[in-house]
Amino acid sequence: MKNLTRKMIVNTIGLLFFLVLPFLTQLFEQEYLLSLFSLILIYGLAAASLDLILGFGGMISLGHAVFMGIGGYAVGILAFHKYDASLIFGFDGSENALITWSIAIAAAGIFGFVTGAISLRTKGMYFIMITLAFAQMGYYFFSALSKYGGSDGLSLYTRNELLAFDLSDDVTFYYICLAILVVFLSIAYRIVNSHFGKVLRATKQNEQRVQVLGFASYRYKITIYTFASAVAGLAGAMLTNQNEFASPELMHWTKSGELLVMVILGGMGTLFGPVLGAATFLLMEYFLAMYTEHWMIILGPFLILVVLFAKKGLYGLLIGSKSKDD
Amino acid sequence: MLLFIEQLINGLQLGVMLFLMSAGLTLVFGIMQVINLAHGSFYMIGAYVAATVTIHSGSFLLGMFAGLVVAAIIGMIVEFTILRQLYNRDHLDQVLATFGLIFFFNELSRIIWGRQPLFMDIPTWLNGTVEILPDIHYPLYRLAIIVVGIMVALFLYLLFSRTRLGMQIRAGATNRDIISALGVNIKLLYTLVFGLGVMLAALAGVMAGPILAVEVGMGESILILTFVVIVIGGIGSVQGALVGALLVGLVDTLGRAYLPTILSSIFSSQIGNTLGAPIASMSIYILMAVILAFKPSGLFSVQNRVDS
Amino acid sequence: MKKITFLVALVMAGALSALGAEPVKIGMITTLSTKAGYLGEDIRDGFKLAIAQGEGKLGNIPVELLVEDDGRKPGKGKQIAQRFMKKDKVQILTGIVFSNVAMAVVPKVVRSNVFYVSPNAGPSALAGKGCHENYFNVAWQNDNLHEAVGQYVTEKKFNNVYLIAPNYPAGKDAITGFKRFYKGKIAGEVYTTLGQSDYAAELSTLKSKKPDAVYFFLPGGMGINFIKQYAQAGLNKAVPLFGPAFSFDERILKAVGDAAVGVINGSQWSSDLDTPTNNEFVSAFKKAYGRTPTLYASQGYDGAMLIGSALKAVDGDMKKTNAFRKALNKADFTSVRGNFSFGKNNHPVQDIYVREVIKDANGNYTNRIVKKVFTNHTDAYAQECKK
Questions:
Q1: Is residue B239 included in any domain, yes or no?
Q2: Cα-Cα-Cα-Cα dihedral sign, residues C283, C287, C288, C292
Q3: Is B235 within the bounds of a domain?
Q4: What is the torsional sign of CA C123, C125, C129, C135?
């Protein structure tokens, strides 16, 4: 009980902080920082989705960023055609978030399902590599689409329209990101603590045993993989809106590596940890870069220290070390 | 036809470089069960040190020697301090820690050598071309790389099949616990294996120096290809690394050379020109996916224990 | 470094605001890393030289230069531009080296009521249909230098030329520009990957096509690798190389040495261009930095002088945007290259030369002007510009 309370306190403080952030930035006249925090929320979403397959499903994917890329390009391409007034596969382009974000989710989810089905036939190191391969394929594919900018990327002229909200207002956009993240985390929390989630976590511990008990572990894994990739697609759509830019860089394996770093830094298998991990990573990048252009030389050893000594990540440190599983 | 032969040799040369990189990596992963993302960093360190020493001393061989030695020393320090802590950890921790090492080495190189690439010259005694077949003039230096690669392959073959150490390494790759039980000094074996792997990577970096530019991040680009190679070849198998490396080298080179032309003849030349290169780069990943679909553990898989 | 600049600026701003003369901020987004990092360095150093000569002022108005590295990444360039505009409230941006970065940054910048002066990248998209009244290019339109060599190669009666460029907007512009004035046959047209290091495969194919000349555009370190590998393959003795100045700047020459001697390249500027302004510039640059300026440095310098002339005209008051724009357009400054004015699409109207790579009396590799190919040359896209 004691740990649950501490966890609840940490989570509540975190949520409150994010809620009042826009006011804080205005107070300190650092409005610009708000975009950084929107980025944190978006990457937090992507990292949390990765945590579902990594921390709970036990699948190490080095290619998760490709789903962000697909979601991002869905938004970019649809916006391109809207601006161009041309058709894509017979449809008009669109800048309506309800349409574009839905397509982003669907496209990423479908790609996740197809590649997941193939990848999950392998294990361990091979699984890591094949997820990497699919991500690189995505990277090279979009780099080759010169109509949509190729390796130079695609600029959006404005952000999408979402119902009555004006997404080009940074504060509005920030709250939408926060809302989406909170909704996702609640859903994910439910999933993870459900029957489905229990089987999934058991699979991570010992797949053979789970199979012997009569569960088709493959089905559980592919389901969560597809779900996670769809969510990453949404994160990608939001990211493209935030930056007003989509490029193949989004899906490069180093980006996937960064997502992994965020998950592990924050605390794998905790859902909220990855958000903290995303915040830590991006904030370190931002602030350290102001002091020295060689900030990576600090980040590197920091990561190593976290791995060696803070096994459950930073979030784990915060909520105490007596955790139920592992 | 002549062009095709020349491109074959180009592919061979790339394959040899990849073999040097992947032989070390597959051993490290196969024996020590450690994923080392920082393998590419040793490639880079070898290149940087060699370039610096060559530029200042004027001797390529001295530079090469320096590159190998420094890389080996740094490698052993890394193994002793960081890697040892990771042997019993899960893959994830290893990925993260070695990812951190990449950041560290990249930034350290930037601090020491700056942001601009270093340009190394080919030693004059390796300059020029050789007429290996009538009308095919191939750069001597690239031939030298191929020769070095063959020598290394031979050396590794002899090491593994003829020496006691090699036997221990091979045994360690199949079952670590047993050889430890047989009284072999595991810690020393690991350090040696890691050192060997690092030196091979550094050798590849040193030789790549004069052709490519020595710059921060050069390790990451070849690292990806290296991982593809060992996955195709089968983790833990040096034989697999050789086959995989040659396969990847050939597919990549021939793809870059012929895909644009092939595409141009089927579609328009505009499509051929702009799509050719990207699809050629994708081709090795497609190759890997196809191979894994039929042989999920690579071509020459060595693993025969349950994955933890 | 940035922190110090920030603090100094803060103090300066604090002190000066009491006097009512805050320095005008200029944001420079340029490529300082990757194989092409020295391009950005030269642009920055040329620009800074102008400021240093003005003792911290351009056009007698105090300025503050903020510099950031885009790493040749369009996404990063965009982020930096956002930060400069939103956080630092900069109203003049400059510096971008690569056209792909420019395409990601410039359209949004100029539509946000911010001025952009390009000291290098000149993609055709921004010279024609995508032109904008807030966008000025003080260097050239991408095609220009290639057009000059295309003209020269035709005049020299080459008939079977092989073309190589990287696969990005400037690469395509390069080949288009060359082909606009080259009237012979094309032996081959190859697009490589941006940032590629190893050209073995491309060189083998090139040899097999037996061209009588090769025209290539590979800026920065890519050019170094290519030229070295070209010479290693023994091609430099058999098939003459041509290119724009970007493939033969002083840094590349220093790195490749003899392999490039004799090569003809096109440029709007050369260090041996004999005008008083240029002679002063070259010796001041050598004195300040200990190296010969490349054309990138000359462009950075001209960019600073251009901005200075406009700042002078509005007396440093950036609120007078219309007047500032007009002043920029007027180009009331003396360019180091001599003849200079703006066309209706805010791109230069200037002379273009071809130069030859030589080894001078001191053993240094440099360029020497051979011939003026175009006088008062504009670009092919000005007609499409309706701003």
A1: no
A2: positive
A3: no
A4: negative
Q: Are A135 and A63 in contact (CB under 8 A)?
A: yes
CB–CB of A14/A40 below 8 Å? no
Residues C194 and C260 in one domain: yes
Nearest to A73 by CA among A198, A237, A197: A237
Interface contact flag, B297 A140, Cβ < 8 Å? no
Q: How many CA atoms lie within 13 A of C106 on its CB side?
A: 31
Token couple for A110: 């479908």
> With a threshold of 0.90, does the pTM exceed it?
no
Q: Helix C99-110 to helix C74-86 angle, to the nearest 10 degrees?
A: 30
What's the CA gap between A67 and A71, in Å, rounded? Answer: 6
Interchain contact, A155 vs C79, CB within 8 Å = no
Structural domain range at position C53: 2-140+273-346
d(CA C77, CA B44): 27
Domains in chain B, number: 1
Gap between the Cα atoms of C255 and C225, Å rounded: 9
Which residues in chain B are closer than 8 Å to C198, comparing Cβ atoms? 14, 211-212
What ranges in chain A are assigned the alpha helix state H?
A: 2-27, 33-51, 65-84, 97-119, 124-144, 170-192, 195-205, 207-212, 217-243, 253-266, 272-291, 296-309, 313-319
On whether both C59 and C111 belong to a single domain, the answer is yes
* Residue B70, in any domain of the structure: yes
Helix (H, G, I), strand (E, B) or coil at C161: strand
| CB atoms inside a 10 Å sphere around CB C369 | 16
C108 to chain A: which residues are within 8 Å by CB?
A: 155, 244
* pLDDT tens, N- to C-terminus, chain C (387 residues): 455 555 555 555 555 444 446 889 999 999 987 778 889 999 999 999 999 999 999 988 999 999 988 888 888 888 889 889 988 899 999 999 998 899 889 988 998 899 999 999 998 889 988 899 999 999 999 999 999 999 999 999 999 999 999 887 788 889 999 999 999 999 989 888 777 777 887 888 888 889 999 999 998 778 888 888 888 888 888 899 999 998 888 888 887 878 888 889 999 999 888 899 999 999 999 999 998 899 999 999 999 999 999 999 998 888 888 999 999 999 899 999 988 999 999 999 999 999 999 998 888 888 999 999 898 999 889 888 887
Cβ-Cβ contacts under 8 Å, C232 against chain B: 122, 127-129, 139, 141
CB burial of A259-294 (b: ≥16 within 10 Å; e: otherwise) equals bbbbbbbbbbbbbbbbbbbbbbbbebeeebeeeebe
* DSSP string computed for C293-337: --HHHHHHHHHHHHHHHHHHHHTT-TT-HHHHHHHHHHT-S-BTT
Phi first, then psi: give them for residue B137, nearest 5 degrees: -100, 110
Q: Which chains touch B (3 or more CB pairs under 8 A)?
A: A, C
Q: Show the DSSP H helices in chain B as ranges.
A: 2-32, 39-57, 60-78, 84-86, 91-113, 140-162, 164-174, 176-181, 186-208, 218-233, 238-266, 269-294
Out of B257, B260, B281, name the one closest to residue C204 (CB).
B257
Residue with the two structure tokens 């990449």: B102
Answer yes or no: are the C-beta atoms of C213 and C239 closer than 8 Å. yes
- Map out the domains of chain A as residue ranges: 2-319
- Give strand pairing partners of C244: C266
For chain B, state the CA radius of gyration: 20
- What is the torsional sign of CA C314, C318, C321, C327? positive
Question: Do C285 and C262 fall into the same domain?
Answer: no
Look at residue C110 and give its three-state secondary structure: helix
CA–CA separation, C118 and C127 (whole Å): 12
